[in-house]
Specification:
single chain; alpha+beta
Length: about 130
């Protein structure tokens, strides 16, 4: 019986693929993503492009806001004195607006600069909407 078991194991082992280790796979290639520098004013952009703050995008057709306030591209509940970010103030129209400033330190949000008397976050240069 032990010879039969040995023969079965030997036959099974010869049918298994070899456990040879091939050459190591090359490391995965990585693609560097180059991010454009943030703009803070029109002078940072070229041609017909405009510097768009990510908080206040330029929109095409504006939606109708029933019972809400249109702020930029969004219908929102009107802001309060405490609902805006540290670099914003609640405007008379009920929307958070950039805070006025004289120095970058007055903006109180990392990456925000005082440009032309207003706290501006780094935006992107883009063409105006059609």
């Amino acid at each position: 019986m032990s010879r039969l078991l040995f023969a079965v194991l030997l036959a099974a082992a010869s049918e298994c693929p070899s456990s040879q280790v091939g050459p190591a796979s090359p490391p995965p290639t990585t693609v560097a993503v180059v991010q454009e520098a943030a703009c803070f004013s029109q002078s940072d952009c070229s041609g017909q492009q405009m510097c768009v703050d990510p908080r206040y995008p330029v929109c095409g057709a504006q939606p109708v806001c029933e019972g809400m306030t249109l702020c930029g591209c969004q219908c929102v509940t009107a802001c309060t004195a405490t609902s805006c970010a540290a670099d914003e103030v609640c405007g008379s129209g009920g929307c958070c607006l950039p805070r006025t400033c004289e120095t970058d330190s007055e903006c109180a949000v990392q990456g925000t600069r005082c440009v032309a008397g207003q706290c501006r976050r780094g935006g992107t240069c883009s063409l105006p909407p059609p």
